[in-house]
Amino acid sequence: MNSEKIYKQKITLAVTGASGSGYFLRLLNVLVEADVQIYLLLSEAAKIVLKTEENETWPDDINELNEFLQKKYQTEERQIIALTAKDWFSPVASGSSAPDKMVICPCSCGTLASIAQGLSNNLIERAADVILKERGQLIIMPRETPFSTIHLRNMLTLSELGVTVMPLAPGFYHQPESIADLQDFMAARVMDHLKIPHKISKRWCE
């Protein structure tokens, strides 16, 4: 008898090598708290940035990584499912089984360009391609400055396809007192767009 928990909400969460890994860590934690099942895709560059910015060293072996994440976030087995870049037989690679929501946080402009051109050279790009062809919800969160004309053209291409382009540019009207407050601001915006209830931060005029 299969006793594995069935989650009401599933999402693909991808992390690339752009700066801003603290935003990813906060979003991952919020999704876990909301009892969402997460298919987690990390590029090799993302692991380097995690170490550089957050002093976090995550295992390279995929089995060790899944065990590490379960302990770190105190989740049930398979709430977080980490996948390798070449895991072509995973659910996220197929339109018949992939979650219908995906967030890339942070999203490098290189990954953004590949998705805009439909290249699908790795599992992150393929998962995004699946979301697009199945008319699902894709949120990309670039963290770059300034944006070149090429970056902006690629963002326009994706926006015209229904992708939400949400740069990692937090507001300040809530009078943040820490970096964590800025991370909360962006996590809250993502949760709003995913229509997942949360109580992360105050809304405008609250």
Structure explained in plain terms:
This protein has helices spanning 21-33, 44-54, 62-73, 109-116, 123-133, 149-160, 179-194, and strands spanning 10-15, 37-42, 80-83, 101-107, 137-142, 164-165. The relative contact order is 0.16. The chain starts with 9 loop residues before the first strand and ends in a 12-residue tail after the last helix. The model has no long low-confidence stretch (mean pLDDT 94). The protein has a single domain (10-194), classed as Flavin prenyltransferase-like (Rossmann fold, 3-Layer(aba) Sandwich), CATH 3.40.50.1950. It is of the alpha/beta class. Helix 1 links the parallel strand 1 (10-15) and strand 2. Helices cover 40% and strands 15% of the residues.
In short:
By secondary structure, this protein is of the alpha/beta class.
Number of domains: 1
Q: Mean pLDDT, nearest integer? A: 94
Helix content: 40-55%
- CATH overall fold name: Rossmann fold
Q: How are the strands of the largest sheet arranged?
A: 3-2-1-4-5-6
| Quaternary status | single chain
Order of helices and strands: EHEHHEEHHEHEH
Q: Mind telling me the CATH class?
A: Alpha Beta
Biggest sheet features:
6 strands, parallel
Superfamily (CATH H level) name = Flavin prenyltransferase-like
Distance between the termini: 48 Å
Q: Per DSSP, what share of the residues sits in E-state strands of 2 or more residues?
A: 15-25%
Count every beta strand, where a strand is a DSSP E run of 2 or more residues.
Answer: 6
Low-confidence stretches: none
What is the gyration radius calculated from CA atoms?
16 Å
Q: What general form does the structure show?
A: globular
